[in-house]
């Protein structure tokens, strides 16, 4: 990141979200969670690459011990960004609760039948979307998360065609 383009402070972020509707707060949280998951996955790939260098017997000892410094630095930078993004989610949660709302979190938990379902936490109440259960309406959070996942899939598509 360049010195000219520093992220806004937590205080500035808290002020910026004060007037947003609840839907936007949840949408922003889902967007940040998506970003965190991409950074975590990126760090996993970078670490595997570093590990492959460290264990590659065909490389000189000095190279293996040094690893890939750029990848190591990238991992550390990602960790800083992940921490900052988790702080932003905390601030979004505080804003919802400050207004008297309940924070809804999406968690991936395995169902008893072994399949993965989405569990929405609404205060102390849990609602599961089971593959064996009857269809039900999605919460705003679930809908937002699914839309973000679809958008991410669409960005990965190389095809410029029209999709209906």
From TrEMBL:
Molecular-function GO term, any one: protein-macromolecule adaptor activity
Q: Name one GO biological process term.
A: proteasome regulatory particle assembly
Q: Where is the composition biased (Low complexity)?
A: 111-124
Question: InterPro entries this protein is in?
Answer: TMA17
Compositional bias (Basic and acidic residues) spans?
Answer: 99-108, 137-153
Q: Where is the composition biased (Acidic residues)?
A: 154-164
**Residues spanning the signal sequence:** none
What are the boundaries of the region Disordered? 99-164
Q: What is this protein called?
A: Uncharacterized protein
Species source reads Exophiala spinifera
């Amino acid at each position: 990141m360049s010195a000219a383009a520093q992220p806004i402070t937590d205080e500035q972020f808290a002020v910026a979200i004060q007037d947003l509707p609840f839907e936007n707060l949840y949408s922003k949280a889902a967007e940040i969670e998506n970003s965190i998951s991409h950074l975590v996955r990126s760090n996993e790939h970078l670490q595997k690459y570093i590990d492959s260098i460290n264990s590659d017997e065909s490389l000189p000892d000095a190279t293996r011990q040094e690893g890939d410094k750029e990848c190591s630095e990238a991992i550390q930078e990602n960790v800083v960004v992940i921490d900052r993004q988790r702080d932003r989610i905390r601030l979004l949660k505080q804003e919802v609760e400050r207004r008297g709302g309940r924070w809804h979190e999406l968690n991936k938990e395995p169902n008893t039948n072994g399949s993965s379902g989405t569990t929405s936490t609404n205060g102390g109440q849990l609602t599961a979307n089971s593959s064996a259960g009857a269809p039900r309406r999605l919460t705003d959070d679930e809908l937002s998360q699914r839309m973000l996942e679809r958008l991410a899939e669409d960005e990965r598509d190389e095809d410029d065609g029209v999709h209906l």
